[in-house]
Amino acid sequence: MTVHPEGVRAGAARSALTPYLRLLTVTQFAFNVGFYAVLPYLAAHLGDGLGMAGWLVGLVLGLRTFSQQGLFVVGGALTDRYGPRPVVLAGCVLRIAGFCWLALAGSTATVIGAVVLIGFAAALFSPAVESETARAAVAHEAGTGTPRAQVLAVFSAAGQAGAFLGPLLGTLLLFLGGGFTAACLAGALVFIGVLAGHARLMPHRPRTTTREPGRGRFPREVFANRPFLVLCLAYSTYLLSYNQLYLALPVEVERVTGSQSAIGGLFALSSLLVVGAQLPLTRWSAHRIAPRTALVAGLAVVSAGFAAVPLVPGGPAGLLPAATFVVLLTLGQMLLIPAARGLVPDLVDDHRLGLATGALSSVSGLAVLVGSAATGTLLGTPGPVLWTALAAVPLAGAALALALPRGGLARVPEGTGTD
Predict the structure, then answer these.
(1) Backbone torsions φ then ψ of 242, nearest 5 degrees
(2) How much is the pTM?
(3) For an engineered disulfide with 141, which of 17, 95, 340, 410 has Cβ 3.0 to 4.6 Å away?
(4) In this structure, are residues 103 and 38 in contact, taking their beta carbons and an 8 Å threshold?
């Protein structure tokens, strides 16, 4: 790995992101702007615009999720084999093609083809960008002393900013009369910009490695790596908890207000909290607590968010318990995501970092798929029972995370530059 001596400086310059890290961060922002300009309006387009039955809308959305989260491990493995640049560029091309196809799709078969292509594009793009960001963050930590979690927090905040602005772009296009087609084409245009930027600025750095003697074809250093699997399971409890924003939260909001119209405001509250507080919170935690401690604390805060719902008295319009849940879930998320991503480079070999990053999402996505069916059966139970059971999930994840190494020592991967 090359660490440029001019990157080691005193004062504020020590924590400044390298040009390469800035590129990856802007990439995450643009990715979410383009994605969320389309996704929030997809279900309404399929149901109202194309007249699909409700079960078919659910199937299409489920296929999109599976083709993305379920195949992250494929994108991660390809990143390790061919390097991040060709995988990112291929993901951009497929996402552009998918959005253009979706803009024109008018039948069930063509819609399914388009959304699967869009999901697979993300399965290529995201593991490549996320693993490369983690690798560059470790190198930046070694060269400047800036905690990797702080760098990864910038990445997360940029993604949340994109998730906040993307729906606003889609709403604007719908308001101006462009309709769903215009939103899809706008998303494609964003990814054309991302493609052009990476084609010009992303370095050629193949990740092909020579297989060491005795190393089998099956990547046992990832899938037989007990600490990494513990991290996957602990992280899965967070993703299952986060999924309650789409399952349990709407039920609670409709129970207290009679409709789900307040959901959008609660989602906006979550995004704004991340954009405004992610960096200060991570800067504080990165200098004061170990990554494992941040992961455990984050899961505990998420658990407290669930437990608070039946305990907090109803406020204006009865939304105070739901708002408390959203705030605590978001605070826990801001603690645990940079910590979890920062632990991955310490738990797996650098030449498997892409595969591990993808596996973290794929294993967690599978757990969410199974767990969501179980938690969905609880939605008809009394509120205290529902929210207490949901609080137990991240609490179990926190207990699991105690088995992880504390972390905090930078391990510099070989063959990684910082710009």
Answers:
(1) -65, -35
(2) 0.68
(3) 410
(4) no
